[in-house]
Amino acid sequence: MIRLVDVHKSYTKERETIKGVSFEVHEGQIFGLLGPNGAGKTTLMQMIATLMKPTSGKIEIDGLSGDKDLLEIHRKIGFLTNEIKLDPMSTPNNLFNFFAELYDIPEKELKDRRDESFARFGITPFADKKINELSTGMKQKISIAISLIHNPPVVIFDEPTNGLDILTSKQVTDYLKELKEKGHAIILSTHIFSVAEELCDEIAILVDGKIAAQGTVGEIIKQADVESFEKAFFKIYVENHIE
Amino acid sequence: MRKIITVFRWEISKLFSSWKRTVALFLLPAILLMAALNVFPLLINYMSTGSISKKPVTVVAAPETFRKYVDETVDARVFSYDYKTYEEFAEMIKDKQAFHKQLRKGMLVCYFYAGDIKRDFDDEVRSYYNEISAENSGAVSNAVIYVGFDANSLTTQARAEQFKEGVLRGYQDSLIDTLGGNYSVVGSSLFETDTFNPVTDFEDYRTTANTAASRVVPGVLMIMMYYCVYSLVSDMFASERDRGFMAKLIMTPVSRRKIYAGKILAINVIVTCSTIVTMLLLFFSSWINRSNDAMSLLPFGMMLTPSELLIILGCIPITILLMTAVCISTVFSLKRMQDITVNLQLPLIYFLGDFFLQMFRGSRPVTLEYFIPLHNSLELIAETFMAQNKAWHVIFIYLLNLGLALLIFRVTFRKEELQ
Known about the structure:
heterodimer; A: alpha/beta; Rossmann fold; six-stranded mixed sheet; four-stranded antiparallel sheet; 24% strand; B: 419 residues; mainly alpha; four-stranded mixed sheet; 17 helices; 70% helix; elongated
């Protein structure tokens, strides 16, 4: 479903942000990206989401390449990142209708999708309130609802539980599990080990733009020869980080 | 096209989602500019006389014909009058210091004198006309009207000139009808039709008002247009990119060009409407300027013919498109929001400079100026107000600005897509 082959990205000639990353994510799989700040997680996710072009290497979504089939890829991807803030003066209803029109969602389906999505995240009572009047958690839930408005087979979530309270985080993680069960291919970046351990089928630890370790949680712990995933992460980070 | 309209509608609805945003874009700048234009004469008056209010013209020994003329003539009612007899005036000037102070504060004195203070001014003029109608070639009149003012004050001097030209000249011309007797039949009927012809009156006002407007209105419109374009580009492009909302839009199955086209269309429609509102307010400002102060930036009677109006209405969206292209290319070439804000504000200084240049320049533009983008729009609007358009100016300026705008968009978006 998602395939990265030797992807490189440099913003300047001197510094390479992503250094030859390759991995595959299949249907019904959650792939976790773990790494410290500045490791290149967001850059990598933005490249997969076609917001940025790799300097070299290949990224394919369902066999489609960003160079040729950009708009078709957009129909297949739902991208959520904390760096995206919704228009503060709009209401959830207006935003939903606007994006539905951009994604060509038929009028008949629109109402059902909106009702279902708003009900799931408890947005319905706030549907006509302005975004700037809502809490951080509610804004995040609206962002998720809008990102997945077109029911995309590929979901890319950059730290979706960041800054959320426990209840909202639980709602989000439960939703991710449900998406996985429905067969969506999901890439998830997070700082929270428990979330990664609970959700991810496979994890890549990114250090200084390179994949330092990749596998299931068990495989990574085994590879690092420690007792917990947290310890494995720190050991791998220290071994691979260049001062 | 449907997607462009979707984005366009979204941007328009965003603008109207907050009344503060709507007012800030549509009315506030126009009202502020209008206020500034109206405050200008008051400010000049205050700076030169120390008083905001204008002193009435002190008329000494006003003859009956003058009072009647003032009552019946619109132009004369631009001033207010304080009538004094010779005795009252003599009493007034006894305290010389106080009198000089009044003059410094902008007082005008109009003094009617017929050679002797006991002699009536109207009688003196009447007898003069009687004598010349009796073919007395040696007839002499002692009737004199003196206008006194503080010659050190530019404003008062201008006001005195306006009084002499706008009131006394007309009054003098009217004397032949009111006091000329038999002589008036021979000497005064030649231009009577024009005196009462509203079209001629209207044309007179229009010529004066449009000449003054050509110095002020183009600059005001350019500043206004740029202010609105800069605000909207800042909001629709820079802020949305900064918030990441632009990325959300780009992630949809709609091409970037369509998204940008929808936004550019929205900017153009909003700013065009806003500029038209400003222009209407400027016309309104001129038409309510009944005082017609000598220092008025927009004198009474500003008016355009339909074809002139069309030229300006065509020039506005093209100018806005070019301004939008310049602003968007600035936004896309910079990353930090602070840098974008500073760089977008810089052209405002240019437009302000251009405004003052236009206000004080005494010559017509040289041909080379029509090749300077945006400045040529200002010159085109100025020319239109002066009714000095040439067809090639209009076509050339339209095409140059439109072509340049499209070229900037093409280069900017291509560069952005490659990134």
